[in-house]
Amino acid sequence: MSSSVSSREPAPSSARLSTVVLDARDAHELAAFYQRLLGYVVRAEEPHWVLIGPPPGTAGTSLAFETEPDYVPPVWPTRSPGDQQMMLHLDIEVDDLEAEVARAVAQGARLADHQPQDDVRVLYDPSGHPFCLWTGTPS
């Protein structure tokens, strides 16, 4: 199996990425945070699972949250072997980086100590998942 990404046209597929799922100790608590942050609505919920997405008629990616009682937050950046590694993070584009960072923190996020770029801010959600707020550079 090759480890490089092919630039060839992909074969037809009926597969479509529909949702990104994040584990948390409390799925409902984390869903509520992202609902406030993104202005999303609840699309479905069960006792240990919640699906949120953009309001009807607007584009965006759905997010789901699943309760995992033994959830361990990742360490970012990784500091030592054996740290729980980050498996993914969300990139969220914003128009006003400073204002959206302040709003995210007011909603329950916390700013990471390490900030790798001027036009990106790394934050942690209430479950400890890193996510990035970023703004495009004016052309």
UniProtKB/TrEMBL annotation:
Q: Which InterPro entries match?
A: Glyas_Bleomycin-R_OHBP_Dase, Glyoxalase_6, VOC_core
Native organism: Streptomyces griseorubiginosus
Starting at the broadest rank, the lineage of the source organism is: Bacteria, Bacillati, Actinomycetota, Actinomycetes, Kitasatosporales
Using the record's annotation, list all stretches that form the VOC domain.
Answer: 16-139
- A family per Pfam: Glyoxalase_6
PANTHER family per record: CONSERVED PROTEIN, HYPOTHETICAL FUSION PROTEIN
Q: Which Gene3D superfamilies match?
A: 2,3-Dihydroxybiphenyl 1,2-Dioxygenase, domain 1
Query: What is the protein name for this chain?
Result: Glyoxalase
